[in-house]
Amino acid sequence: MGMNMISKGVEHALDVMMSEGFEDMNIVSVSGNFCIDKKPAAINWIDGRGKSVVAEAIIPADVVRDVLKSDVDTLVDLNISKNLIGSAMAAS
Fold first, then answer.
1. What is the pTM of this model?
2. pLDDT single digits (tens) 61-80
């Protein structure tokens, strides 16, 4: 469920509460600015977001050569350049 749907649900719940027993309630804000699903925030860094999966595969050199039309050393260099150096430069 996205934050927009959660906000709509909270707003509806607050409307019901105001009409059924909490008439003197003062609604200050629907959001407490904890909706950081798409914002850079420390809580995302600490707790993470979504799910994580780790997968490994051993691909024989002949498959890399014949199917991927590359070689192991080139793929290793690409991985270092893109996933290690590039990600570090982008701070991601």
1. 0.42
2. 999 999 999 999 999 998 88
- Which tokens hold the place of 85? 């150096």
The alpha carbon of 52 is separated from its chain's Cα centroid by a whole number of angstroms, namely: 10
12 and 26 in a single domain? The answer is yes
Residue type, 49: R
Kindly report, residue by residue over 51-61, the tens digit of the pLDDT. 778 999 999 99
Please spell the DSSP secondary structure of 20-89, one letter per residue.
TT-TT-----S--S---TTS--HHHHHH-SS----------HHHHHHTSSS-HHHHHHHHIIIIIIIHHH
Q: Are residues 65 and 47 part of one domain?
A: no
Sequence length of the chain is 92
The boundaries of the domain holding residue 51 are 1-55
